[in-house]
Design brief:
By secondary structure, this protein is α+β, with helices and mostly antiparallel strands. The chain contains seven helices and twelve strands. A six-stranded mixed sheet has the order 3-4-2-1-12-11. This is Exodeoxyribonuclease III.
Length: 269
């Protein structure tokens, strides 16, 4: 089973790039983030015409996540237990955002996640980000003995080498100790990040549009695939598609692709 994640930064703008990527890499399951569209406006027809099934969670032009698969996803959910909501006004209803979608595919529970950005350390969004991660870790702990995968844009650089210049990020989100500790909680819940071991020569997954960061090699590693022990043991390889990131009018994230020996997958394709 080949599973990829990609923060697409608007699926309607880049639908044909997505389909081309699926075909070029023979991807079985693609988890998208920042689709930036409501369910009713998602380009289902294009994916269906290309032979793919789609499960999508989107409510407006912000956030949005999807799972695209060669087989129909089962038991689709649009939130995980205790997932917190958010509103800028602390007195308003803290409604769930379109940041998670999970499904079962060939015996694997797969979640496409767009972790809150945090904005600034003093912003309520930063506290929301941490609460989101804590709740996710509690849920992951209950699934640690099953074939379970969370993947997507985590908006955290867990190590100093995951940013092109640690000093540039001083006092900013993505690199703070609370965020990194929350990421570690995910790993301590029974999950293992499986792509880093195969991508030592491909350091980053995100390059800001500003400042020609991609051309300068100034990126961040903030996209990951965290698998439970039974699934992590079946990981056989991974790569970051930097060629796609270098393409014209593409997303500011590069697709992150990993392979797993899920032996019963081909039988249901």
């Amino acid at each position: 089973m080949r599973i990829a994640c990609w923060n697409i930064n608007s699926v309607r703008t880049r639908v044909h790039r997505v389909i081309d990527l699926l075909k070029a890499h023979d991807i079985d399951v693609l988890c998208l983030q920042e689709t930036k569209t409501a369910d009713a406006k998602f380009p289902y027809a294009e994916f269906e015409a290309a032979g793919y099934h789609v499960a999508h969670n989107g409510t407006n032009q912000w956030n949005g996540v999807a799972i695209v698969s060669t087989v129909e996803p089962d038991n689709v959910r649009t939130s995980f237990p205790e997932q917190p909501g958010f509103a800028k006004d602390p007195e308003a209803e803290q409604a769930l955002e379109s940041r998670a979608i999970g499904a079962e595919i060939s015996g694997v529970e797969i979640w496409s996640l767009y972790i809150p950005n945090g904005r600034e350390i003093t912003d309520r969004h930063y506290d929301y980000k941490l609460q989101y991660l804590y709740a996710l870790a509690r849920y992951a702990e209950t699934r640690a003995q099953d074939k379970f995968l969370i993947t997507g844009d985590f908006n955290i650089a867990p190590r100093d080498e995951d940013v092109w210049d640690r000093g540039f990020f001083e006092g900013k989100t993505h690199v703070t100790e609370p965020e990194r500790a929350a990421f570690q909680m995910l790993e301590e819940s029974g999950l293992r990040e499986v792509t880093r071991q195969f991508t030592a020569d491909q350091q980053y997954t995100y390059f800001d549009y500003k400042g020609f960061r991609f051309n300068k090699g100034q990126g961040m590693r903030i996209d990951f695939q965290l698998a439970s022990a039974p699934l992590a043991a079946q990981a056989t390889g991974a790569f970051i598609d930097l060629t796609e990131r270098g393409g014209e009018k593409t997303s500011d994230h590069a697709p992150l692709v990993a392979d797993y020996n899920v032996f019963d997958f081909d039988s249901v394709r």
